[in-house]
Design brief:
Blueprint: H1 11-36, E1 41-48, E2 54-61, E3 67-74, E4 77-83, E5 101-108, E6 112-119, E7 125-131, E8 138-144, H2 147-154, H3 168-171, H4 189-194, E9 199-204, H5 221-239, E10 244-247, H6 257-266, E11 271-278, E12 288-293, H7 299-309, H8 324-333, H9 335-354, E13 360-366, H10 369-372, E14 378-385, H11 389-396, H12 398-431
Parallel strand pairs: 9-10, 9-11, 11-14, 12-13
Antiparallel strand pairs: 1-2, 2-8, 3-4, 4-6, 5-6, 7-8, 12-14
């Protein structure tokens, strides 16, 4: 008897089920591998080359990035862009700021990471990047070269601006602001005009033989703040033509601290804005600060006040100090000015943080002599730290100065609208 084995009818479906399960396992492993393969930039390290011919910056990567490019737009700045939408920098370790490679900064972009590498001013190198042959790390080779060769090499590059989403002109928000102005009787016109916000006093700090802070690569505070002040004045002249701009100085001239406020008083100013740039021994410190007159609340504010009050006065004073009694008398006599100054300072800080993308160090009080003499709302603005390589480059650039000036402009414009709306309301109430 011959037996013939026949596969039961259900066997093909079981076989198909096994194949299906195998496929699902394969896909699960594939996708799990894809997730686990996300590129993690664990740290960035730096070292001197063993041959003594330069330096190496290493990007420690868990897996290769999609691609990268390197450019060197200045002898002291190397920029790289690492492409890959899945690059993870959680917990990244960056090198300390000591040594010839002073600072490494990362900027998260939509599909990549931008990197700024700042070098010491006495370092002359050319840059080239490649993949480590033993893994997925990227190596940036900085090779020593003659000063002339480095300057020629860097001329072929244009610096990348990782804040490219901020357009200084667009940031001004120049659409006309409609202010509802009722039509009071003619007898009130003169009073109403007197209450208008129509004169601003812009005070570029330092000047002449007083350079102010000396920042990274010799940047002078007096030059940076004068450029920002003129841009601010230009925006006001163009977009708020009914506001008169008064400068305490419009060139490289020294003006005593005690003379600056009275210049504004002479022109019956409605607002006094003194523009400065900060400095600190630690180059990583950065950010903006806005001060209005009053008692300092912490040691940091006190140190800044001491520095700004200690200038090269033509009268021979090395340091002008306001006593607690001076400030108390001022607060009693000018409580309205102080409240308004705090309000506008907060508006400036908001613009710096939320529109200009700057790090805020807050709104503070301190006894600045330059504000004491101004019989109007007044504030002193520290636009950033010139001793920070990144901020120095930003504040020394036309782009950065435009961003800072436009932020100041927006705050002043918004306050003008707010102030005149209030005055119009009061006029209407009086008219009734």
């Amino acid at each position: 008897m011959t037996y013939e084995f026949k596969t039961p009818g259900r066997m093909p479906s079981l076989y198909s089920l096994i194949r299906l399960c195998s496929g699902m396992v394969f896909l699960s492993l594939f996708f799990a591998g894809t997730v686990s393969a996300q590129t993690h930039l664990e740290r960035v390290s730096k070292a001197e080359r063993s041959d003594g011919l330069g330096y190496v910056v290493r990007y420690h990567l868990s897996s290769p990035v999609d691609s990268f490019k390197v450019l060197q737009p200045a002898p002291d700045l190397v920029q790289m862009e690492l492409f890959g939408s899945g690059i993870d920098t959680t917990g990244i370790q960056l090198p300390t700021e000591e040594g010839k490679i002073q600072e490494v900064r990362l900027y998260k972009l939509e599909e990549s990471y931008g990197v700024d590498i700042y070098l010491d001013s006495d370092v002359w190198v050319t840059s080239k990047a490649y993949i480590d042959k033993n893994g997925s790390d990227i190596l940036l080779a900085l090779t020593k070269a003659d000063e002339y060769d480095v300057k020629v090499f860097t001329q072929q590059f244009l610096a990348r601006n990782w804040y490219k989403d901020i357009n200084p002109e667009d940031a001004l928000e120049l659409a006309p602001v409609e202010i509802p102005v009722p039509q009071p009787d003619n007898s009130y016109n003169q009073v109403r005009d007197k209450l208008k916000f129509d004169t601003i006093v812009i005070d570029p700090g330092h000047g002449g033989h007083d350079p102010g802070n000396i920042g990274y690569r010799g940047a002078k505070e007096k030059d940076v703040v004068l450029a920002i002040s003129k841009k601010l004045g230009g925006y006001i002249n163009e977009y708020l033509p009914d506001v008169k701009v008064i400068y305490t100085r419009d060139d490289d001239t020294f003006i005593d601290l005690e003379e600056r406020g009275p210049i504004g008083n002479k022109h019956e100013g409605d607002l006094f804005v003194s523009i400065h740039a900060n400095a600190f021994e630690k180059t990583s410190v950065r950010g903006t600060e806005v001060f209005f007159l009053g008692m300092h609340r912490n040691q940091t504010s006190f140190e800044i006040m001491k520095h700004e009050n200690q200038v090269f006065n033509t009268s021979g004073h090395d340091y002008v100090e306001l006593t607690e009694e001076d400030l108390m008398i001022y607060e009693l006599a000018h409580a309205g000015y102080i409240a308004t100054s705090e309000r506008i300072s907060t508006m400036i800080d908001h613009q710096f943080t939320n529109r200009a993308g700057r790090k805020s160090r807050g709104v503070k009080q301190a006894g600045f002599v330059v504000l004491y003499g101004a019989a109007m709302p007044a504030m002193l603005v520290e636009v950033g730290f010139l001793t920070n390589p990144s901020e120095q480059r930003f504040l020394s650039s036309d782009y950065g100065q435009s961003i800072i000036a436009s932020a100041l402009f927006r705050a002043i414009r918004d306050y003008k609208v707010e102030y005149e709306n209030t005055q119009v309301f009061d006029d209407t109430a009086t008219n009734r």
